[in-house]
């Protein structure tokens, strides 16, 4: 069916593109401009109309507007509630673009936000453009790449304060694995277009947080779809795309907000956002966001405690030069973690069930203790320098340094059949059907990333053809230094064998007092008294040197082409063996990553059809069965679709079909499984639909649907023809509807409701061992709030139906039950 859809969809797309591209462009001209607040900040959603005509538009998130008109002289009327209208004269010439100087509306940024809130007429859940997706300001309708932007207004409406919950609003995105807090790789894993992805970018640069990321300093979250190595490299992205946090920036006014959240499972959260200019001219601006969060698990044990601080300072030297420096400090303490793996090398039938809801384990049981505790810390520092050469050329220099550390025991438990326990240990007294193999190690150490990036952008014409060019250089250094502290369990078999990290086996259905043995005292005793486990140290340095260029080329005003290329030189210095002090497995590789796109605006500024070709790669170390060194693994995506922004921005969205093929996958060489061969392939294709609507004042809706077909087309006999376990569900859906009264005695009162659906997920999917399913689920959420200029109160119920459901890849990790949260915010 998907193949049929592929053929029909692609044919329809190229038919529309070809027909549209040869249509006459008419003799219209274009006028562009920009509107600022009285403080010089971008003024979005400001009305721009043509005096005496029905034509008009609204400014985008960057305060920009564009109109296409017949040749002649016009008066543009720029207006917003609470501000004095501005009239601008514009002379339109056929086939040419008139660029107006920026204008300032006599309304502050805070007042503009209040107007936006109180009017109830804006599509507040949508953002019309991005500075980061293409590394230049580009509207969504002009961009051949698909992305979802989750605004802070949507987060406020849903009373959300972390990225895990926020990403429920992105079509096709689901959680794959909960955050572990481990240095380097401990962030939450999500599924995006059939591939595992973490939120590792901040404002387009390395900005990893190795726990559940707090959203207190988030302006928006961008989910950028498809292989994106051309502009973002391969280290921080996946073949499904990337997740980019866009953070709040300082502005020219003193303002602040303090919020408190309290609710189920001992939730206590306090956060603050404060902004102020540091000089009378408003050239030095400071903003700080901070949050403290504590909550117990819904289970019998488990808690998370975190503190987050994010200051930012900007300095405007003059009209051409400005600087900014940001930091993020995040600390985490957690205990009683619940991670249930499925023992991997047994037939699923040995579990006595093939679904998570059939395994006889208490949904709230952790088999752990709160004093088995780990700690972690993130310290991220960012800097930026912007210099404007002239109206056409700009330079931006960026750096980021991110550091994550972790310390303490990290449990991981396997659900294992009793027969396997007897085989492993040689002890026949394990007669029960299912046990929990309680494992623990301590990954202690630091992961450090440093990135330096230079981008030069130009907006110029060659003849009559507009070009928006980005040329960039990127240097990325990754250093990992993590020691895995381990002990070994010595079996009773003859001869005795050792099992690394094994603490004990406990009955899954009738654990008795042994349930409580996994505690700090007994884990410490195991480290002190048992034999040491196999040494495992990850100490590695790698360097990536990249150059890239990207040009958005206007063939006509409405027909655009994008062409981009990246060259990437990867230098892995190898892994240090602490026992021998020998460095091994160092290697160097060079990779190219092209990107192409076409966009035609069938209805200018309202409907566009697009197509893209995007690529990604992953560096691979080692040699194959013939001792030939591996080359980089590659992915290629072909995608086509439609984007729309209708009824003055009240209805917008995207419909797209994508096809991703991964080649050069390293897999076991079945003639000798101890060796490898690099000829594996995988396909991931699907459809995504997103719609954001404000059909009438006060009502805002966001919804999406994702279908993904992912399959190993060439790998081992055990996996060929099957869906990968890290590909997530085939089908997902999300919906949120919110209504806010804009007038009368109940002005500011609002309520919202929605939910998420995810289909079945394969925790095990093997031609050899069988299939184990995490069942599909639908989770409903609801909220009510009362929003005024100076304060806001709200009540949110997550998982209204108290649904029991699991996520995982080779795991079955239970998720949050019903949660009730109340909150109050004060603005000043």
From TrEMBL:
**Matching InterPro entries:** Beta-barrel_TonB (IPR000531), Beta-barrel_TonB_sf (IPR036942), Carb-bd-like_fold (IPR013784), Plug_dom (IPR012910), Plug_dom_sf (IPR037066), TonB-dep_rcpt-like (IPR039426), TonB_sidphr_rcpt (IPR010105)
This protein's GO cellular component annotations are: cell outer membrane
Family, according to the entry, reads as follows: Belongs to the TonB-dependent receptor family.
Spell out the protein name for this chain.
TonB-dependent receptor
Membrane topology per the record? Answer: Multi-pass membrane protein
- GO MF, one annotated term: siderophore uptake transmembrane transporter activity
Q: Tell me the ranges covered by the TonB-dependent receptor plug domain, including all copies.
A: 141-234
Residues making up the signal peptide according to the UniProt record: 1-24
Q: Name one Pfam family in it.
A: CarbopepD_reg_2
UniProt subcellular location: Cell outer membrane
Q: Which SUPFAM superfamilies match?
A: Porins, Starch-binding domain-like
Keyword line: Cell outer membrane, Ion transport, Iron, Iron transport, Membrane, Receptor, Signal, TonB box, Transmembrane, Transmembrane beta strand, Transport
What are the BP-aspect GO terms?
Answer: siderophore transport
Q: Which organism is it from?
A: Mucilaginibacter conchicola
In what residue span(s) does the TonB-dependent receptor-like beta-barrel domain sit?
A: 440-800
Keyword Cell wall biogenesis/degradation set for record? no
């Amino acid at each position: 069916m998907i193949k049929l859809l592929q053929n029909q969809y692609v044919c329809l797309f190229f038919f529309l593109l070809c027909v549209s591209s040869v249509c006459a462009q008419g003799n219209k001209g274009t006028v562009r401009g920009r509107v600022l607040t009285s403080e010089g900040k971008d003024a979005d959603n400001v009305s721009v109309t043509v005096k005496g005509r029905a034509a008009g538009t609204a400014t985008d998130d960057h305060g920009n507007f564009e109109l296409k008109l017949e040749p002649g002289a016009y008066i543009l009327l720029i207006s917003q509630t609470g501000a004095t209208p501005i009239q601008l004269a514009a002379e339109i010439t056929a086939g040419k673009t008139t660029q107006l100087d920026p204008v300032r509306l006599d309304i502050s940024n805070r007042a503009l936000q209040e107007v936006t809130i109180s009017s109830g007429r804006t599509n507040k859940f949508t953002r019309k453009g991005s500075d980061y997706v293409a590394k230049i300001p580009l509207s969504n309708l002009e961009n051949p790449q698909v992305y979802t932007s989750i605004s802070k207004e949507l987060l406020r409406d849903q009373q959300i304060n972390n990225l895990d919950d926020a990403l429920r609003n992105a079509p096709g995105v689901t959680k794959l694995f909960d955050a572990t807090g481990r240095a380097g790789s401990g962030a939450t894993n999500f599924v995006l277009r059939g591939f595992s992805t973490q939120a590792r970018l901040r404002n387009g640069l390395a900005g990893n947080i190795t726990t559940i990321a707090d959203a207190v300093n988030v302006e928006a979250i961008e989910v950028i779809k498809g292989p994106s190595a051309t502009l973002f490299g391969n280290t921080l992205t996946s073949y499904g795309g990337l997740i980019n946090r866009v953070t709040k920036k300082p502005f020219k006014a003193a303002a602040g907000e303090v919020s408190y959240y309290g609710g189920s499972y001992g939730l206590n959260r306090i956060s603050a956002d404060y902004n102020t200019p540091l000089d009378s001219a408003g050239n030095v601006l400071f903003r700080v966001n901070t949050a403290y969060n504590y909550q117990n698990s819904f289970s019998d044990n488990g808690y998370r405690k975190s503190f987050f601080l994010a200051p930012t300072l900007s300095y405007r030297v003059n009209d051409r030069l400005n600087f900014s420096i940001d930091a993020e400090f995040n600390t985490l303490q957690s205990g009683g973690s619940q991670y249930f793996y499925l023992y991997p090398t047994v037939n699923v039938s040995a579990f006595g069930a093939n679904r998570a809801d059939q395994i006889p384990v208490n949904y709230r049981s952790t088999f752990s203790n709160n004093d088995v505790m780990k700690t972690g810390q993130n310290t991220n520092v960012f800097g930026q320098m912007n210099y404007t050469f002239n109206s056409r050329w700009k330079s931006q220099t960026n750096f980021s340094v991110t550091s994550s550390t972790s310390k303490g025991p990290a449990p991981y438990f396997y659900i294992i059949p009793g027969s396997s326990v007897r085989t492993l240990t040689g002890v026949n007294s394990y007669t029960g059907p299912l046990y929990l193999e309680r494992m623990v190690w301590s990954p202690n150490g630091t992961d450090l990333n440093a990135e330096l990036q230079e981008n030069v952008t130009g907006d110029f014409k060659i003849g009559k053809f507009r070009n928006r060019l980005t040329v960039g250089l990127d240097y990325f250094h990754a250093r990992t230094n993590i020691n895995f502290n381990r002990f070994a369990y010595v079996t009773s078999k003859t001869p005795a064998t050792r099992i690394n990290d094994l603490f004990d086996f406990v009955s899954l259905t009738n654990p008795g007092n042994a349930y409580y043995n996994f505690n700090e005292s007994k884990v410490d005793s195991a480290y002190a008294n048992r034999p040491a486990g196999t040494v495992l140290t990850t100490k590695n340095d790698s360097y990536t040197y990249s150059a890239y260029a990207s040009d958005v080329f206007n063939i006509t005003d409405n027909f655009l082409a994008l062409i981009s290329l990246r060259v990437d030189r990867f230098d892995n210095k190898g892994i240090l063996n602490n026992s021998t002090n020998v460095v091994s497995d160092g290697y160097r590789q060079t990779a190219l990553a092209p990107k192409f796109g076409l966009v035609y605006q069938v209805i200018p500024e309202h409907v566009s059809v697009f197509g893209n070709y995007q690529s990604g790669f992953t560096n691979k170390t080692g040699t194959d069965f013939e001792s030939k060194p591996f080359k980089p693994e590659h992915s290629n995506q072909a995608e086509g679709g439609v984007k729309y922004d209708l009824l003055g921005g009240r209805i917008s969205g995207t419909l797209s079909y994508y096809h991703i093929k991964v080649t050069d996958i390293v897999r076991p060489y079945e003639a000798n499984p101890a060796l490898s061969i690099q000829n594996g392939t995988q396909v991931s294709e699907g459809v995504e639909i997103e719609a954001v609507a404000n059909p009438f004042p006060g009502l805002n809706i966001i919804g999406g649907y994702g279908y993904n077909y992912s399959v190993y087309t060439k790998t081992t006999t055990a996996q060929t023809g099957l869906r990968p376990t890290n590909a997530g569900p085939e089908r997902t859906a999300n919906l949120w509807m919110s209504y806010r009264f804009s007038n009368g005695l109940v002005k500011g009162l609002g309520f919202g409701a929605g939910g998420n659906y995810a289909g079945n997920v394969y925790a095990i999917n093997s031609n050899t061992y069988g299939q184990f399913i995490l069942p599909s689920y639908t989770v409903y959420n609801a909220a009510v709030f009362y929003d005024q200029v100076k304060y806001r109160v709200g009540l949110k119920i997550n998982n209204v139906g108290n649904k029991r459901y699991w996520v995982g890849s080779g795991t079955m990790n239970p998720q949050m039950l019903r949660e009730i949260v109340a909150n109050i915010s004060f603005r000043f």
